[in-house]
RNA sequence: GGGGACGUAGUUCAGUUGGUUAGAACGCUGCCCUGUCACGGCAGAGGCCGCGGGUUCGAGUCCCGUCGUCCCCGCCA
């Protein structure tokens, strides 16, 4: 079809703007064909842009234009000029804002055509997420997505303006930086200039914003991208946006005021007026009243019912009188069947300690007054559902455990409360509040978090927030004297909305004596602290003002305001649960011209050119092997086929692990694992009954190990090397096969004679070969034998050579037996030989 | 790493106890239609039933594996 040029045509109005008051005007609209209704001599088209839809009309008044309009299809881009006409009577469409007018077109320019899209932005039912993400540009054309994008812009702008008006400066901090003290995995970026060193992408600008306070910036904020290399969820993406702020000389309350201010401005931008102040609650109160540090206030809290019972009742119920005993009430659930009650039991924690009493009717038989009292205390209506949670008798032993045990009971009750609330959401309706109604948003500040958490596994204290959080001034003595650490409260706070944590912050430590003491309490030595935060500790020493701040998740805020179930609804280009961008198809293996390889190699210290080439070759070999066979595609009809398929799978897994270890420079560990590859190679020869090839293989294996032995140097072992040795041994144990006898015993009868014929040969060579590396590594403890453990190019090269040499043998033998064509391997093998000969 | 749900036409879905030629709606193509607005009518095209094995006389349907998407646990403020 003939396309038109835009020429000097200008758009006079967006598609969502025209009203009756514009009647008679000659206007020009541009946009997409959203929908067409072709009546032959009368054509309606809904023209769409981000502002909305206008109906445009073509009729026989202009035959040539009508003719042209009949060619239009979904998502064609057009420009139209015409006169705005008022629609009358039946012709009005009350469903759209522009429904009282239409445009009688006199000129149509076709700016672009479109392939038939996999789905149309005008569709009423959505395709699945995969399709939406792949064709994200089509998905984003949908009015809902346009709305979310606009909402996000407006909210961010309102926050910026609000904070700017209150003296906050938006200041940028680096993306290429070093690891900050949050607990998540960092994204790492190898440095080209500094071989073997990495930048980390920030999990948050925590230390930078504190440094800005030390730098005299007084009030900082930033709407900033943060990165965390963790598994994704509906409400978690690899990269997400925080509203980050920090200020000097703050009372905790001042931070709250600032946040209440900009959150109010944000909600205002979404057309909702929030009350000026949010509720406040201490951590202990939150736990006792809701069994959660992020209480959802839309439903009734827990109610202490201990006083309802006579003293002996607790004993009869096998409850610990020192533990909490609370009622969980879910409104309007109504009668439950026996089966449903049993199902609900499964929602209760499996941990020992907390105990569930879910049958109030039975309870009523023994203590009728108690149950009446409970109904009173909980203000329960007749159709409300109530269960009780207490602490099982005899669980908490020491006084120190009591607080933990009490919290566990509350937490169990709190969890059950939310599980039941979600399950019966349709009945109580508390979660279906009107998005536009301020009452649907229950904000809450949770304050006075504990400063430390006891880590049972590591047997030490952890910082509950992060190690720069200031303790309460009243609790400072305990910190400085290193006592009662579990009772120390932090000046840390969370902002919670409808049971979701929106943000988290604290007043920070500004005195180096306190900071030093905190590190000590956390079991960090001076050196460790210096190594991780040296620059920051030094900065603290140059007159640091008291400061504090907070960070809120912008994506979550937008999601809640948009009524979305997932962050993907409010992030234009999100990633899937497996961390893939479906549109651009990231991440991808990199096509590697030599220079790029060198850059990456630089990230792996100690790996030489030749070793890198070997690693790449081995990688390609694995790919080639899998293309020919494919672990999953091997038939497994006979026992022999099963054994071969398993052998191939093992060789593949070990090869892959070997290459990974080798690339990281862990030569010896890789070598130990590589032994498993030729073990598998050997076994496949034997099962395949290719005795001659197996014998040759044994000889070359022998030579390989000998040459490795020659290459390695004798030297003393230090502490680090000893640790690596243990690691290497662990790898050996994990990767080890059953003994020879066990293996023979497992073989099908047909195969056993063949295998047994091999035993002498096998025992002479392979048994010895297998034990060579492990044995020699073991010998390291006697300080006779060593390498630069984990950093030896010789060991790396050996491991990779083993993979390259023998994995292809496995592939060839297995392919032969399964009747697959090993030809694709040949081209690769030529290339591999070349690399191998370079040694 | 573990658990669950799903995978059939471009899209959303149906497909009985395993049984003839795998269906519907929307979309697409062609023709007709001057007041529709999720327009309507007639005709038509469109399927590796995700992929690989197995069981069976016979598999979209049963079994095993694998890949992908979503949700949850672990992990992560």
Automatic annotation (TrEMBL):
Region (Aspartate): 206-209
GO cellular component: cytoplasm
Record bears the keyword Iron-sulfur: no
Residues flagged as site, Important for tRNA non-discrimination: 39
GO biological process: one example: aspartyl-tRNA aminoacylation
Binding site for ATP: 228-230, 237, 501, 553-556
PROSITE patterns for this protein: AA_TRNA_LIGASE_II
Amino-acid positions noted as binding L-aspartate in the UniProt annotation, renumbered to this chain: 182, 228, 465, 508
Secretion signal span: none
Top-level EC class as recorded in UniProt: ligase
GO molecular function: aspartate-tRNA ligase activity; aspartate-tRNA(Asn) ligase activity; ATP binding; nucleic acid binding
Enzyme Commission number, as recorded: 6.1.1.23
Subunit structure comment from the entry: Homodimer.
UniProt-recorded name of the protein: Aspartate--tRNA(Asp/Asn) ligase
Organism: Candidatus Korobacter versatilis
């Amino acid at each position: 079809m003939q396309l038109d040029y835009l020429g000097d045509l200008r758009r006079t109005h967006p598609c969502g703007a025209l009203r009756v008051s514009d009647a008679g005007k000659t206007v020009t609209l541009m946009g997409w064909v959203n929908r067409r209704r072709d009546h032959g001599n009368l054509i309606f088209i809904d023209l769409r842009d981000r502002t909305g839809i206008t109906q445009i009309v073509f009729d026989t008044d202009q035959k040539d234009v009508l003719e042209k309009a009949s060619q239009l299809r979904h998502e064609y881009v057009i420009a139209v000029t015409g006169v705005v006409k008022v629609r009358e009577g039946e012709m009005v469409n009350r469903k759209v804002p522009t429904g009282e007018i239409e445009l009688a077109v006199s000129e149509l320019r076709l700016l672009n055509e479109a392939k038939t899209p996999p789905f149309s932005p005008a569709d009423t039912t959505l395709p699945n997420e995969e399709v939406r993400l792949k064709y994200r540009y089509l998905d984003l054309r949908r009015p809902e997505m346009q709305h979310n994008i606009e909402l996000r812009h407006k909210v961010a702008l309102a926050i910026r303006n609000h904070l700017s008006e209150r003296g906050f400066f938006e200041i940028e901090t680096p993306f290429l930086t070093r690891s900050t003290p949050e607990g998540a995995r960092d994204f790492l970026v190898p440095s080209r200039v500094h071989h073997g060193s990495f930048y980390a992408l920030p999990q948050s600008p925590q230390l930078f914003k504190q440094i800005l306070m030390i730098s005299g910036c007084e009030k900082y904020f930033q709407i900033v991208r943060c990165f965390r290399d963790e598994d994704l969820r509906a409400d978690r993406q690899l990269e997400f946006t925080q509203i980050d702020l920090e200020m000097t000389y703050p009372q905790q309350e001042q931070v709250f005021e600032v946040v209440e201010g900009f959150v109010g401005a944000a909600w205002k931008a979404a057309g909702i007026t929030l009350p000026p102040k949010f509720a406040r609650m201490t951590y202990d109160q939150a736990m006792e009243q809701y069994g959660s540090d992020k209480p959802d206030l839309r439903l009734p809290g827990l109610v202490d019912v201990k006083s309802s019972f006579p003293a002996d009742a607790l004993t009869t119920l096998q409850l610990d009188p020192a533990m909490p005993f609370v009622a969980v009430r879910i409104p309007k659930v109504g009668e439950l069947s026996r089966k449903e009650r049993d199902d609900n039991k499964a929602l209760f924690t499996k941990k020992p300690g907390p105990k569930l009493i879910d049958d109030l009717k039975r309870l009523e038989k023994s203590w009728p007054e108690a149950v009446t009292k409970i109904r009173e205390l909980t203000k329960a209506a007749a159709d409300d559902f109530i269960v009780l949670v207490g602490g099982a008798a005899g669980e908490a032993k020491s006084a120190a455990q009591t607080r933990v045990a009490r919290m566990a009971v509350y937490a169990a009750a709190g969890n059950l409360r939310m599980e039941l609330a979600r399950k019966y959401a349709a009945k109580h309706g508390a979660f279906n509040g009107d998005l536009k109604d301020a009452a649907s948003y229950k904000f809450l500040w949770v304050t006075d978090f504990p400063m430390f958490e006891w880590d049972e596994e590591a047997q030490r204290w952890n910082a509950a927030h992060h190690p720069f959080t200031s303790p309460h001034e009243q609790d400072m003595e305990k910190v400085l004297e290193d006592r009662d650490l579990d009772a120390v409260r932090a000046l840390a706070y969370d902002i919670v909305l409808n049971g979701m944590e929106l943000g988290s912050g604290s007043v920070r430590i500004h005195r180096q004596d306190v900071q030093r003491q905190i590190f000590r309490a956390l079991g960090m030595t001076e050196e460790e602290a210096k190594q991780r935060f040296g620059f920051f500790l030094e900065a603290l020493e140059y007159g640091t003002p008291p400061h504090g701040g907070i960070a809120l998740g912008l994506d979550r805020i937008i999601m809640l305001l948009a009524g979305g179930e997932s962050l993907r609804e409010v992030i234009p280009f999100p990633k899937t649960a497996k961390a893939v961008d479906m549109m651009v198809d990231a991440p991808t293996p990199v096509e590697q011209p030599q220079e790029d390889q060198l850059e990456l190699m630089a990230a792996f210290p100690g790996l030489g050119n030749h070793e890198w080439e070997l690693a790449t070759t081995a990688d390609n070999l694995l790919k080639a092997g899998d293309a020919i066979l494919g672990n999953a595609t091997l038939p497994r009809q006979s026992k022999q086929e099963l054994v071969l398929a398993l052998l191939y799978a093992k060789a593949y897994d070990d090869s892959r692990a070997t290459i990974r270890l080798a690339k990281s420079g862990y030569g010896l560990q890789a070598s130990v694992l590589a032994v498993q590859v030729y073990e598998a190679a050997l076994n496949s020869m034997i099962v395949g009954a290719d005795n001659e090839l197996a014998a040759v293989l044994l000889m070359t294996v022998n030579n390989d190990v000998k040459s490795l032995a020659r290459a390695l140097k004798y030297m003393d072992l230090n502490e680090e090397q000893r640790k690596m040795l243990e690691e290497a041994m662990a790898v050996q144990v994990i990767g080890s096969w059953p003994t020879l006898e066990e293996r023979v015993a497992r073989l099908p009868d047909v195969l056993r004679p063949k295998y047994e014929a091999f035993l002498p040969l096998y025992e002479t060579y392979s048994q010895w070969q297998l034990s060579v590396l492990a044995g020699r590594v073991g010998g390291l403890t006697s300080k006779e034998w060593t390498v630069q453990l984990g950093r030896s190019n010789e060991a790396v090269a050996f491991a990779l050579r083993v993979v390259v040499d023998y994995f292809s043998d496995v592939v060839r033998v297995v392919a032969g037996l399964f009747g697959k064509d090993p030809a694709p391997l040949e081209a690769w093998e030529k290339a591999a030989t070349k690399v191998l000969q370079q040694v």
